[in-house]
Amino acid sequence: MKRPYAALTGTGYSVPRHVMTNDDFAAIGIDTSHQWIFERSGIVQRHIARDGESTCSMGADAARKAMAKAGITSAEIDAIILSTATPDRLLPSTAVDIQAALGATRATAFDLSAACSGWLYGLTVAEGLIAAGTIETALVIGSEKMSAITDWQDRSTAVLFGDGAGAAIVRRGDGKRGILSAFMRSDGALAELLWRPSGGAAHPFSLPVLEDRSSYVKMAGREVFKHAVRMMAEACDRALDGARLTGKDIDLLIPHQANIRIIEATAKHANVPMDKVYVNVNRFGNTSSASIGIALDEAITSGRVRTGDTVLLCAFGAGFTWGSMVVRL
Ligand code: ACO
Prior knowledge:
By secondary structure, this protein is of the alpha/beta class. The chain has two domains: 6-176, Peroxisomal Thiolase, Chain A, domain 1, CATH 3.40.47; 180-328, Peroxisomal Thiolase, Chain A, domain 1, CATH 3.40.47.10. The protein has ten helices and 13 strands. It has helices at 34-41, 55-70, 94-102, 118-131, 155-158, 207-212, 221-242, 260-270, 281-284, 291-301, and strands at 6-14, 19-21, 45-47, 79-83, 108-112, 137-144, 164-172, 178-186, 194-195, 218-219, 252-255, 310-317, 321-328. The strands form four sheets. It has a five-stranded mixed sheet with strand order 1-7-6-4-5, with helices on both faces. The protein has a four-stranded mixed sheet with strand order 8-13-12-11, sandwiched between helices. It has a two-stranded antiparallel sheet with strand order 2-3. Strand 12 (310-317) and strand 13 form a beta hairpin. It is globular and about 55 Å long. It binds acetyl coenzyme *A (ACO). Residues 32, 36-37, 40-41, 115-116, 155-156, 159, 194, 221-222, 224-225, 228, 258-259, 262, 286, 288, 316-318 line the site of acetyl coenzyme *A.
């Protein structure tokens, strides 16, 4: 059997109820403005977790919606793959918490760490497990409580991120619809351009770590921007080549939602006009590995794409990691 081995049969997303606008930063003592944030990133607001909302609760909520749309029960799930940079605790995985919340008792569950590219990595891993005959049905989730690792005293990063989760059910396909191509790449030599220096096993939490704030996200914004534009472009090329398609064949491009300028540069390179590009970074900010799943579910639910349409997904994130995928819905 040749590709497509695996199809996305249901999607869902979940975001916290609380909305924080650009103007709300003044109230927490951050010296910024709506104009600065909007001009550089396209972000207007983001959702921020409160009152016990967690990576697990958002992920499980998105998963239930995806299962309902796919018309399956949790008993049918063979694997739960959770992409997250913000696990609720360090051991064991947050995927097993989601498994317990869903009652998906016969599944295997594990976390996957590839930052903003992680949901595409997860879909690709699921496709491989299905193609190998190891599983029939996977639940792939990207869930992020970025507000928990954001330095709320650092205006250069605090304004960019938001919380949320996106999910998809991936099942053995009918050989016509599904994942037509996938591409993944990383470059660990560039890890320190976007990272959390402390808080892991090398530099565990301690009083000095809390005081120097080195457990929060640090980002060299301009450097990250340059690499993101180049790597997202490469990712689009590789997925299109793999599917033997060009930008003209794409009904909708869904790039990782980090920054409108990166999205526009990616669309231009891929030769996809902006009216065929999904943008919601204005409403959600950068939700890391949740962003593409949220956008894909919105695009399907709103009728922007339909069964049989061809979508190009591409992402870039800390690591660096980057990746892409062409999917026939
Ligand atoms: N409000 C007001 N001023 C600010 C803010 C803020 N929130 N943040 C920084 N500034 C100031 C800086 O202090 C600096 O002032 P100075 O010139 O007096 O020193 C000035 O604005 C310019 O700072 P830069 O960082 O050079 O601003 P730049 O134009 O590069 O924009 C930005 C910053 C938006 C972060 C940009 O670099 C960017 O988009 N980078 C990519 C970030 C990204 O998308 N990351 C995620 C991708 S990977 C992933 O999703 C994990």
